[in-house]
Structures are given as structure tokens and as C-alpha cells.
Records
---
Amino acid sequence: MLLNEMRIKRGINSGFSLNMQLIMDEIKTFFFAGHDSTALLLTWTVMLLASNPTWQDKVCAEVREVCRSNGGAPSVDQLPKLTLLKKVINESLRLYPPASVLPRMAFEDIKLGDLHIPKGLSIWIPVLAIHHSEELWGKDVNEFNPERFSSKSFAPGRFIPFAAGPRNCVGQGFAIMEAKIILAMLISRFSFVISENYRHAPVIVLTIKPKYGVQIRLTPLSY
Ligand code: HEM
């Protein structure tokens, strides 16, 4: 795709052209931005489903019902119908946002309400803190409750796992599609139970990782 874009841009005198170095940098960005983040989303979601058997059963029933015709592997038309799974994914992104902070820098003096932000100040948007704010989410903020995503009336900026604005995550549609397909295939074939060896120890190293991994016992389900 990028090589094709380079060829097209060469033909048009737009003042901007892609060269091999730029293409290599873009590809590295895609690997960096797209791998760990999606792997962590899957890890935390499996941990949450394994710890919440009621939701696991509900999502399993939904996947089996929606994807009956193709044995649990969702087709493109079936993906939007996996609404419970989407709520579970959102709740996982809320509780364990892979990008826990968003670093920014003020390029000019800014007045934000009563705050004066001087040019050059480094600002970190605390995604994790926003996602765990009782004021924004209510008393059950630290509970796993995917039902909270049934309501469409969100305060803007309250749920920002993929950031917001023009430079938000360009891969978010792909990431959600990937997560839905993998989780649907897993959940329709196995039941998950959290292992007695699991130690809940999220650590923040820009992303949020489980310090000792997530150990799960899988039991094959009959289809
Ligand atoms: C659950 C998975 C993912 C999460 C939570 C996530 C989150 C984010 C966030 C928060 C940003 C904005 C960073 C900032 O503004 O400082 C971002 C940017 C970006 N993401 Fe993702 N991402 C995910 C998956 C992916 C995937 C699968 C791809 C590519 C296939 C991808 C490609 C990118 C790129 C290229 C940017 C930079 C966009 C720009 O600067 O214009 N991401 N992502």
C-alpha cells in the first residue's frame, strides 16, 4: 500500500513524497503501535472473562448464536452483531487502557479555564486516572461492569483508550476487529478459568502489563 502511494505521489507534484526511509519509519511505527497494545488488550480481556464466569457465558452464547453458520469464526457481516463482546472489550480498555498516558507538549501559550499553560510545557494526559475517576464513572468505577457501555450518553473525553482528535489511533478499527475475531474464536471453543497461580499485579511501563503474566486453564467446549 505504502509503495503504491509512493508511486502515485511521484507522479503528482504535491510537494510531499514518500521515500524508502519514510516508508520504513511508518512500518516500524505500525509494528510498535499495533503489536503490544493489541496483545495487552487480549490478555486483560481473557483475564477479565476468566474471572467473571457470568459474562463469559453471556458472550459465549452470543458468539455461538451470531456465528452459528461458521463455527465461531465471525464473518465481516457478523462482527457488528457481537454487541456484548464489544461492551466487554470496551470495559477491558477502560480498566486496563494499554496506553495509560498520552504525552503532549504545548507549542504555544494556552489558557485553559483558569489554567495558564506556557509554551514548551510537557503535559501528560492521565488516561488511566480518567478511566478510574469515580466522579466520571460512578461508585462502581473499579468493578468490571460492561453494561455501563449500553448507555450512549458519555461525557466526551471520558473514554479515551485510542486518544481523541485528529491524531488519535489510526489503527483502532483494525484493533477492535482483530480482538473481536480472536476472542470470538477462543470463547466459542474453550471455557476459561483463572489459574490459582495467577497473581494480579498490573505494572505501568507506559503500557499496563501483568507483571507475572496471566495464567489461564482452558477446557475445550463441545460445539
Ligand atoms: C488495543 C489496541 C490499540 C490501542 C489501545 C492503541 C492506542 C493508541 C493511542 C492512544 C494512540 C495515540 C497516541 C498519542 O496520541 O500519543 C495511538 C496512535 C497510533 N496507533 Fe494505535 N492503538 C492500538 C492499536 C493499533 C494498531 C493495531 C495499529 C496499526 C495497525 C495502530 C497504529 C497506530 C499509529 C500509526 C498511531 C499514530 C497515529 C498518528 O500519530 O497519527 N494502533 N494508538
---
Amino acid sequence: MKCGIVIPAAGRGRRMGANVNKQFIPLDGKPILIHTLEKFSRLPWVDEIVIVSHPDEITIMEQLVQQYGIQRVKAIVPGGKERQDSIYNGLTFLETEYVMVHDGARPFVKQTHLEQLWQTVQKIGAVALGVPVKDTIKIVDQDGFIQSTPDRKSLWAIQTPQAFRLSILRMAYEEAKKDRFLGTDDSSLVERLGMKVMVVEGDYHNIKITTPEDLILAESILKHWSEEV
Ligand SMILES: Nc1ccn([C@@H]2O[C@H](COP(=O)(O)OP(=O)(O)OP(=O)(O)O)[C@@H](O)[C@H]2O)c(=O)n1
Ligand SMILES: C[C@](O)(CO)[C@H](O)COP(=O)(O)O
């Protein structure tokens, strides 16, 4: 059994406010995206990697992949307006039985968690990495008033990778496209088909680098947990 990896990296990084795609920002001298790609490129069960890039950055991506010797990159393909559009396009280039979708902006996913996801997706067919939330979460209305407080015991902050049997994810993406449904992750597209998605507990290092504060946290993670991430 082999797995294909789709790395959505075609965003504009608006919340980062940098004048460059946040995935090219260096961490310990290496672009964030390369840290991410290195987590997958040597795994024995990874058959092919598809990187989804902003159309204007495909050449840069090709140069980085070559410069850092990233293995198993099958294609670097153009993304779309939304993350969902980018992944939809990336999926069309895969020929594996399983797929793992992982944000290019999450450089610290652990190998142990990737292995757990790989074992689980072969049994369950749909799985996502996540962590229990630490804050109390509130549902707030458009006027800024709290409507409800969900029981924190049942709340998880879902990350990536999210892994699926490829046929399941393709069907979910087609249904979402037909229904014009836009989700913020891949699992929500599978859930809306009425299918169960399992959560594997990861850890709090697996941050998505989104705003400037995350760069400070990322440097600290790399400095204090470099052997683990
Ligand atoms: N149209 C898009 C939007 C996002 N992504 C990717 O999806 C991942 C998670 O998205 P996010 O962190 O929101 O990145 P951006 O969309 O770039 O950030 P922002 O919303 O701040 O612009 C990132 O690796 C990003 O590059 C993508 O491939 N295509
Ligand atoms: C997919 C994701 O990383 C799960 O937490 C998150 O939903 C991506 O959100 P973004 O706004 O596209 O970064």
C-alpha cells in the first residue's frame, strides 16, 4: 500500500503580512516549506508528493526542491483561490490508494504521528491529527455576545495531516464542488457525506505558521525541541 502526499502551499500569507510567501521565510536558514517537505520525502510508505504552488511561484518551488534534494516530488502544480481549490487540483495528480493532505505552513509534524496516521488510515479510511483545546471556546454572535459554551471535553483543535482513502476524498471534493460547499479543512468535506473520521492525538508543536507571533514560537520550538520536530 502506498500513500500520496498533497502539500497545499499556494496561499498568499495575508495574516502573516510579509512581503513574501510565508512558506519561503527561513527557519534556521531553511525555508519553512522545506522543513515541511523533509518530514515526508524519506518515509518508505510515501510514494509521491504533489506540491500545490501559487502559479507565480512554481519556478521558485522547483528550484528549492532541487536545491534541497527533496525526494519523490511527482509534480508542482498551480493552486486556486481557496485552499480547497488548491487541494482539489493537487488530488488530480495522484495515483495512490491513500492520500495525506498536509499544510505547507506546518513544518513541525512528528514522524511518530505520521506513522500513526498511516497505520490508522489503512484501517479506518479517514483520519485527522488534532489536540484537545486548552482554552474555553465560546460561540459568539455577530453582535459580539456569547451564545453558548460548548463542553470543552469534546473540543479538539484539528490540524493536518488529514489522511484518507483517495477514492473517499475525491468523492468528498466532488460533492463539495457540486454543492458549492467551502470547508476550512478536508475532513469536513468527508464528514458531510456522513462518513466517520477518526482523530489521532498529536501535539502542540504542530503549529500552522499563520501570524507573525507564530514565527517567534517556531524559532523557539526549533531551538528547544529540534530532535523531536
Ligand atoms: N488558496 C490557497 C490558500 C492556502 N493554501 C495553503 O493552505 C495552507 C493553510 O492555509 P493558510 O495557513 O491559511 O495560508 P494562507 O492562505 O497563505 O494564509 P492567509 O489566510 O493568512 O492568507 C497553507 O500552507 C497555504 O499555503 C493553498 O494551498 N491555497
Ligand atoms: C486545515 C487546517 O490547517 C486545520 O486546522 C486549517 O483549517 C487551515 O485553515 P486556513 O485558514 O486555511 O489556514
